[in-house]
Amino acid sequence: xxxxxxxxxxxxxxxxxxxxxxxxxxxxxxxxxxxxxxxxxxxxxxxxxxxxxxxxxxxxxxxxxxxxxxxxxxxxxxxxxxxxxxxxxxxxxxxxxxxxxxxxxxxxxxxxxxxxxxxxxxxxxxxxxxxxxxxxxxxxxxxxxxxxxxxxxxxxxxxxxxxxxxxxxxxxxxxxxxxxxxxxxxxxxxxxxxxxxxxxxxxxxxxxxxxxxxxxxxxxxxxxxxxxxxxxxxxxxxxxxxxxxxxxxxxxxxxxxxxxxxxxxxxxxxxxxxxxxxxxxxxxxxxxxxxxxxxxxxxxxxxxxxxxxxxxxxxxxxxxxxxxxxxxxxxxxxx
Length: 335
Known about the structure:
The protein is of the alpha+beta class and 335 residues long.
């Protein structure tokens, strides 16, 4: 009976592989929305059996952004009446000619279905365009190093590595399927993998020391016959020396690190001329106040690394040039 109804309504059955939820996105999306909306009521200690009717009605009356119609309107050809409008029944709403009513309903549904097909096509093209714009196409060739994305299972999946490898591209049977080979030979990858599971691996040379050996420059070849024999013998000796250097390369010297002070301690303008007994110079942090001293002023100076209670009075001649400029630009308060 069900198969006869499906055939009458032109309903086709499509099969998808197991554990591939992305192949059935429309159905899985509906299940996710239904689960999210029922969770709110279950957390309020309500029975989901009583709330599922209102949730399904809200889902069927919501307009889909891709086709611009709600599921209720696609089936019945009109917008749903919500309980807010009232549940009264009027006999005048009954169509006098039911044959004309069904004919108009059929024409209205055909128009809605044609618009749905056009909107779905435009929405699909726009989605495909956005996906292709963000897609970083991976171009591989035989001999490239790649990482293989793993399928995480079991407990502690958040702490497991996402990729495994590196592997070497062995055969490319199609633009989407890649056959890999393990460098260590411990793992055999018989079936090819999809290119979406691969990521390019940048592998450095195993021993770059040989490439850093300085090659001695060869002397220019002279035009005379005597110099030709000498130069050829010199070239042979030079090639032997290079071969010996490649076999026994000289150890590379590591660069020594130059330790520098922070930038705030490199500014000598804030270093006062007064030195302590151990030879360390004093660095001024700020000028707190000034007071008259004869015909000039004394300035209360706080040093870096000292609290304000240990500030010292110093004349203007004992201050560095930058501190003197700061006094002229922003005079401290007079006490």
